[in-house]
Amino acid sequence: MAPKSLLYTLFSTLSVALAASIPQTDYDVIVVGGGPAGLSTLSSLGRMRRRTVMFDSGEYRNAPTREMHDVIGNDGTPPAQFRALARQQISKYNSTSVLDIKIDSITPIEDTAANTSYFRAIDANGTQYTSRKVVLGTGLVDLIPDVPGLREAWGKGIWWCPWCDGYEHRDESLGILGGLPDVVGSVLETHTLYSDIIAFTNGTYTPANEVTLAAKYPNWQKQLEAWDVRIDNRSIASIERVQNGDDHRDETGRQFDIFRVHFTDGSTVERNTFITNYPTAQRSTLPDELSLVMVDDKIDTTDYTGMRTSAPGVYAVGDCNSDGSTNVPHAMFSGKRAGVYVHVEMSREESNAAISKRDFNRRTLEKQTERMVGNEMEKLWKRVLDMHRE
Ligand SMILES: Cc1cc2nc3c(=O)[nH]c(=O)nc-3n(C[C@H](O)[C@H](O)[C@H](O)COP(=O)(O)OP(=O)(O)OC[C@H]3O[C@@H](n4cnc5c(N)ncnc54)[C@H](O)[C@@H]3O)c2cc1C
């Protein structure tokens, strides 16, 4: 190898540095949402020393419930206790921080001069934060009808998820709340827990709804008969709590609530517990503002890998995404998965930037060296070779 080439190699080996094409932001990642999904992402990124901030407006879907179930290792843990422990454990990762405030807007910024892009988030106080990536773990809200007594009992004897709350009320009298088309689905989910079941269809037992139900379950009437399920189509005026299961439990964890359903005709029926069929909606307007592709009002992540969304650099985890699962284990799984993919995506960008910086430095040094030594080295080397030959 000629001396000049040797010189170049030496210089360029010493000149590896991080490239300028990585945007200079306050954080690597902004996580919006402090439920199990956002917390899992924060944990994963913290363990890889990624500068990550998690914003939490304090509106958790399972806030009304007495305790969580079907979350192994945390069966029976109150959600607030679970989140507090997670925060405490994550706080030892110095690159993470938590801010208890709502994020009002997130804007993607294109820096064409530097050939980079990043995000700017603004919180409810108007403070701005920038990051390379965004993870939304913003959750869902349950759209509970305006029946007096219903919202107050939500998560406390009246529930939507049998895996979460059904076992604590096993063998009690069950009511099904919701429209006729949802009755069979609720029975199929719960018949191993209950034998005394009344479906309160609240005026929705109509010919049109019978057709809808028959399209899904052609033999729906026979199925309900087989499980001894009665249908009560009277209009519900209110639901009154008669006994609170918080104060009436047994040593196996059973909760004994009592509710009285008041109908508009003045009659009443008592039940211990209810499963419901009510819709949900996105808690946050951020998915809409970021123009994310949605599937049935969930952020589409199924068409992309690693909880990515339709917007480059934006990920969605937990209830708000289109995975089709809304429970704490799924929130933790998807949060963790996004944590891995975000880290690796950023590492790839850093790797590519380091390579292009190195190439850029090498080319610059070659030109500088050329200018400094001209072709004197080549002449010197030729003279040495000539002398050697003589
Ligand atoms: C009554 C009830 C009981 C349940 N019980 C169980 C159970 O026993 N077991 C189980 O597995 N599942 C249970 N679930 C389901 C469980 O609650 C959800 O699956 C889980 O909470 C989803 O977690 P997440 O992190 O996606 O959303 P969430 O826990 O709802 O968290 C959403 C987060 O986003 C934040 N946020 C939203 N918008 C913004 C914003 N703009 N800026 C800042 N922060 C924002 C909120 O403040 C919150 O921190 C229950 C649900 C309900 C309704």
UniProtKB/TrEMBL annotation:
GO terms for molecular function: oxidoreductase activity. Gene3D superfamilies: FAD/NAD(P)-binding domain (3.50.50.60). Residues 1-19 form the signal peptide. The keyword Oxidoreductase applies. Keywords: Flavoprotein, Oxidoreductase, Signal. Residues 27-179 form the FAD/NAD(P)-binding domain. It holds the Pfam family Pyr_redox_2. One of its GO terms (biological process) is cellular response to toxic substance. The keyword Flavoprotein applies. InterPro entries: FAD/NAD-bd_sf, FAD/NAD-binding_dom, Ferredoxin-NADP_redctase_2. Belongs to the class-II pyridine nucleotide-disulfide oxidoreductase family. This is FAD/NAD(P)-binding domain-containing protein. It comes from Aspergillus ibericus CBS 121593. The lineage of its organism: Eukaryota, Fungi, Dikarya, Ascomycota, Pezizomycotina.
